[in-house]
Specification:
By secondary structure, this protein is mainly α. Among the domains are: 1-29; 31-102, no CATH class; 136-209, no CATH class; 331-393, no CATH class. It has 17 helices and two strands. The protein starts with a helix and ends in a 6-residue tail after the last helix.
Length: 393
């Protein structure tokens, strides 16, 4: 025991040293739960700040309990100098100053979209002015309006109420893409118009007064057309009467020719110039002979002109026939059957189809023998027909 007595001072010092370090650590990281009973609950950032941050000069009694008293009266933390009010807790939470729960749309009526929510307040509220902030787009985006070149808004005289074309929900200015502006209200964009650039119709950034009728933009195409030549033909300039806005090209025109003359048979495949010679369309004959007088005069089997055929071609020829030789004639005055189904000239020997000859085939000696004793018999073609209008009677 005596041998260990000399160690007591040393052990005492070691014990005091360890006790001192433990006590020191305990005071450096105190348990602050007791603070909840003081009337000011420590939450968020307040749990980690040093006590003297709030309890200045070692004074604990009478420490302010409101955000305003501590962060403005004492610390002057508000960069806006209370212009937004003194009730900090209505927007800020103790987790951090930037953890704000203020509803911009509900409080001001100006709802912030995704892009506006990422902007600093000063981007719109310049000079720290909040109550008098302008709500119109142009108040912030005048430079964007002035810098726009496709199309040039200023030169075109576009209104400055940006929201008439651009939507706050758009991620970029270009997102309007025509969806914000209802072009159909003034001119429907169909066919190639739907993909054309604005400057194609709105030249030199002129938008007001742009022609809405086809010819207002397409007079050069009207003048240049050669198949058929619109100008020479006297076509009307109401392009939409033949061309449709939904067509992808000018050649997709559709004209209802049947409304004036039905195109059937050979007419369906003929070129326009076949009937409309020298690009004359107005006044083009609609009767067959008006176009086919030359064919009528040239016909030799039978010779239409010499035999006095009428010029109403459609009585024998059909528009659906592939050629003139397909003409059909209804031989109503005398049925052509059996041995009488012969070439026209065999009976109409003179070339005059108003006259005919029975005697050219029916021998007189035979006819006299067969009609011996018949009263009124005469060997004459007209006499034959008077008794035999239907071959036999």
């Amino acid at each position: 025991m005596k041998k260990l007595s000399f160690l007591l001072p040393f052990l005492t010092c070691v014990s005091l040293l360890f006790l001192s370090r433990g006590t020191q650590a305990q005071f450096e990281t105190p348990n602050r739960s007791f603070h909840n009973a003081t009337g000011f609950r420590l939450e968020g950032r307040h749990l980690t700040v040093a006590c003297e941050s709030c309890h200045t000069n070692g004074q604990f009694s009478g420490t302010p309990k409101t955000c305003y008293d501590c962060h403005w009266v004492r610390r002057k933390d508000d960069r806006y100098q209370t212009r937004l009010g003194s009730q900090c807790e209505t927007c800020h939470r103790s987790t951090s100053w930037t953890d704000v729960r203020w509803d911009h749309g509900g409080q001001t009526g100006a709802r912030l979209n995704a892009d506006h929510r990422t902007l600093a307040c000063e981007s719109c509220h310049r000079g720290g002015s909040f109550r008098a902030a302008a709500s119109g787009c142009i108040s912030c985006h005048q430079k964007d309006y002035a810098a726009t070149t496709t199309p040039n808004h200023a030169a075109a005289g576009f209104p400055t109420n940006c929201e008439s074309c651009h939507r706050p929900s758009d991620t970029t200015w270009r997102n309007s893409g025509g969806s914000g502006f209802n072009h159909n209200a003034s001119f429907p964009l169909l066919g190639t118009h739907a993909t054309a650039n604005c400057v194609t119709c709105h030249k030199n950034n002129v938008f007001r007064g742009t022609a809405r009728d086809c010819v207002g933009c397409h007079i050069d195409k009207y003048n240049a057309t050669r198949s058929p030549n619109h100008v020479a033909a006297g076509f009307p300039t109401a392009c939409e009467s033949c061309h449709r806005a939904s067509d992808s090209t000018w050649t997709g025109a559709s004209f209802n020719h049947a409304s004036v003359f039905a195109l059937v048979g050979r007419h369906a495949t003929a070129t326009c110039a076949s009937c409309h010679v020298n690009n004359v369309y107005k006044g083009t004959a609609r009767s067959c002979v008006g176009c086919h007088q030359a064919q009528y005069n040239a016909t030799r089997n039978p010779n239409h002109a010499s035999v006095g055929f009428n010029t109403t071609c459609e009585t024998c020829h059909r528009a659906t026939d592939g050629s003139w030789t397909q003409g059909t004639f209804n031989h109503t005055r005398f049925p052509l059957s059996g041995r009488h189904n012969v070439a026209c000239a065999q009976c109409h020997t003179t070339g005059n189809y108003a006259t005919f000859s029975c005697t050219v085939c029916h021998d007189r000696s035979k006819m006299d023998s067969e009609h011996r004793g018949r009263s009124g018999y005469v060997y004459d073609s007209n006499a034959c027909y008077s008794c035999h209008p239907n071959v036999r009677s």
